[in-house]
Amino acid sequence: MTDLPSTASAPARHTNRLAQEKSPYLLQHAHNPVDWFPWGEAAFDKARAEDKPIFLSIGYSTCHWCHVMERESFENDATAAVLNKNFICIKLDREERPDVDKIYMTFVQSTSGGGGWPLNVFLTPELKPFYGGTYWPPEAKYGRPSFSQVLQRVAELWKTQRADVLSSAADLTAKLQSLATYDANNAFPAGERELHGAGQTFLHEYDSVHGGFGSAPKFPRPSQPLYLLRYGKRFGDTDALKAVLHTCEAMAAGGMNDQLGGGFARYSVDERWLVPHFEKMLYDQAQLTQLYLDAYLVSGEARHAEVARATIRYVARDLKHPDGGFYSAEDADSEGKEGKFYCWTREEFQRLLTPEEFTLAARYFGVTAKGNFVDHSDPHPLPDQNILSIVDVKLNDVERPLLESAKAKLFAARSKRVRPHLDDKVLAAWNGMMLGAVARAAVVLGDAEFKDLAERNLAFLKAKLWDASTKTLYSRWRDGERDQVQLLDAYANLLAGVTDLYEATVDPRHLQFAVELAESMMARFYDTEAGGFWQTSADTPHLLLRHKEDYDGAEPSGNSVAALTLLRLAVICERKDWRTAAEKSIRLFAQRLHQFPQAVPHLLLALDFGLQEPRRIVLVGDFSCGSTTTLLRAAHGVFQPHRVILGNAGPVEPFAKTLPINEEFTQVYCCSGTACQPPTRDRDAVRAFLVGK
Questions:
Q1: Do the beta carbons of residue 14 and residue 81 sit within 8 Å?
Q2: pLDDT at position 4
Q3: Across the chain, what does the average pLDDT equal?
Q4: For residue 349, what pLDDT is reported?
Q5: Is the distance from CB of 521 to CB of 491 less than 8 angstroms?
Q6: What is the DSSP letter of 215?
Q7: Number of neighbours of residue 592 by Cβ within 10 angstroms
Q8: 105: helix, coil or strand?
Q9: How far apart, in whole angstroms, are the C-alpha atoms of residue 682 and residue 662?
Q10: Which helix (H) or strand (E) holds 131?
Q11: Residues 309-336: pLDDT tens digits?
């Protein structure tokens, strides 16, 4: 087990039920004086038996403000006594149960206008919410009540105005249900209008000075720039391409990108990408790798490829289980201070580097005596801290190796510091995202180590989270044990990742697994009547309602990922039923595409793909020969989002199996519809076909 922040180093005066859990977040609270329950029947039975409301607190292990509220309130004996007397207290890891989190986050957002974590909600014993919020301080300030005041008020209302509370909870639950209802009779999006309008909307939000979209705080939200690249190609809009490339350059140069170790922090608190919120999430590494691969293909500039490489190397070094699974996240805090692991003083630079290295590195990274980051931690903030960002890229041939020497020394010194907490659970959904990114990088960048990394990751997931006998994918594995939860996000994202791996290798075993995943996803989550995919399977217990997630936020929604991947597989396997399901799902969310495209950028990728018949690259012959790799690299070396790559074995389209084979070497058929060009081994011919020349 990895070290855990806050409570892991505190005296274990108390031990509650969370000590038996696997979630790193729940284990962080295992020694709180609060009588915590995990989400489950035992807590609900006790609430009903004792006629008490439920206090549900949701967060995740790398959440900074979750740590703060724990230190201030959940470790406080007096606060814990109030909680234990008046409530049944439940802790829940939002990363393990996004389905539960979604229900109550929607409630808090709809009733308070805001949301975030920690998410704290009061429920009836029947799980109906009646009051909630996010972080509450230990003392009232800034117009926000103290946590103790909230607890006392809710406890009083439960005792003295029970009927009103229950009536309000029933009304609020009905409103939640209405928010989860969509019109299945929407007209299918016409296409060009929605795609063009969305691109214009995104460009209107573009920050032409600092890159990115919107104002501070700035989140990378890769689905949006990924869509803009496709928009720019479809409509010939070079401004869209320039906006994305500028954004990629700015993010890579900023403090949000770890300049020494690779990998991106969660977001930037300022508009310049300088000061990050330092936690690193696997899903960001996966999506940003995909973005930088596309930026490399669009621009041809090697610097974007190097960012993708550095991001994957960070994951392989710091977020990988020895057997191949990818861990979830690293914390923002180290030794109780946000960013301490990553920041530097000018004096540290001088002590570690030669005078020549120091002068160059201080200039390159913008290191000053006063620093550029203010540590607000109590009671002893760290002075003069510098976040490393690239402020001077003008290096000559003498300076480049000198900078590399300085970076190596700084990285070695940093490696001796106390690392941030590692959330070492393995999530199928996030691993699926990373699997796809690594698989694409392996073939786009020609890196055999990345291919091995992807193959080992899939083998791990199949061994730990996939039940081949029942075709069931579980959501989380940690410390030798998997959970019993099945979620759409897990199926959809792993399906996308396996499809990427298949297109990078044309290994029919991967396509067969993709088919099994797709069929299981359809059976468990697809709504055959209205379209769209439920977030949870029908037999998931203890849910107030079932939800169809459509919001492409920090992570793309399961519906968007499922729609795009089914459209791709429908072409590869010639499965009209999958295409119909994808189109029906897109139609279900048509109003979002019309009215608020900012909410569904990944669904726009699906719409864009579905409205244009993709070109097909079909490899046939002896895949063990070296020319296979060369031809695959040629097929992946062009930015062409409207293409699929397949072999002629396994569950591929019947037409591909009829193409003549030369047993001595691999050839490519470049196909569109039922017409194929003569077979070729010419890389340039493949590229020319994909770019339309």
A1: no
A2: 43
A3: 94
A4: 97
A5: yes
A6: S
A7: 19
A8: helix
A9: 15
A10: strand 129-133
A11: 999 999 999 999 999 999 999 999 999 8
CA dihedral of residues 434, 439, 444, 445 (deg, nearest 10): 80
CA–CA gap between residue 189 and residue 603 (Å, rounded): 12
Contacts 24+ apart (CB under 8 A), 7-10: 7/31, 7/32, 7/70, 7/75, 10/75
Three-state SS letters, 380-423: CCCCCEECCCCCCCCCCCCHHHHHHHHHHHHHHHHCCCCCCCEE
Contact between residue 226 and residue 290 where contact means Cβ atoms under 8 Å apart: yes
Would you state the structure tokens that stand for residue 630, as one six-digit string? 């060369």
Gap between the Cα atoms of 488 and 98, Å rounded: 10
Which residues, other chains included, contact 502 with Cβ-Cβ below 8 Å and sequence gap of 6+? 510, 511, 514, 572, 646
The number of CA neighbours under 13 Å toward the Cβ of 190 is 6
Q: For residues 541 and 512, is the Cβ–Cβ distance under 8 A?
A: no
Q: Name the residue with higher pLDDT: 624 or 519.
A: 519
Res 190: pLDDT: 62
Length of the chain: 693
Question: In a 10 Å sphere around its CB, with 0-12 CB exposed, 13-18 middle and 19+ buried, how is residue 471 labelled?
Answer: middle
pLDDT, tens digit (0-9, with 9 covering 90-100), for 25-80: 999 999 999 999 999 999 999 999 999 999 999 999 999 899 999 999 999 999 99
Alpha helices in 113-191, H assignment, sequence order: 147-160, 162-179
Residue 304 burial by Cβ neighbours in a 10 Å radius (0-12, 13-18, 19+): buried
Separation between Cα atoms, residue 224 and residue 291, nearest integer Å: 10
* Cα separation, 173 vs 684, whole angstroms: 59
Q: How far apart are CA 379 and CA 335, in angstroms?
A: 13
Return the DSSP state at 17: G
> Dihedrals φ, ψ of 464, to 5°?
-100, -30
Longest dimension (CA), the chain: 84
How does DSSP assign 54-91, residue by residue? EEEEEE-TT-HHHHHHIIIIIT-HHHHHHHHHH-EEEE
Q: At which residue do the structure tokens 């992570």 appear?
A: 555
* DSSP assignments along 229-285, one per residue: HHHHHHHT-HHHHHHHHHHHHHHHHSTTB-TTT--B-SEESSTTS-SEE--EEHHHH
How far apart (Å, rounded) are the C-alpha atoms in residues 216 and 218? 5
pLDDT tier, 217 (very low <50, low <70, confident <90, very high otherwise): very high
**Tokens representing 306?**
């190097």
Pairing of strands 329-330, 333-334: unpaired
**Cα dist from 687 to 227, 297, 319, 589, 639, whole Å:** 22, 12, 35, 35, 10
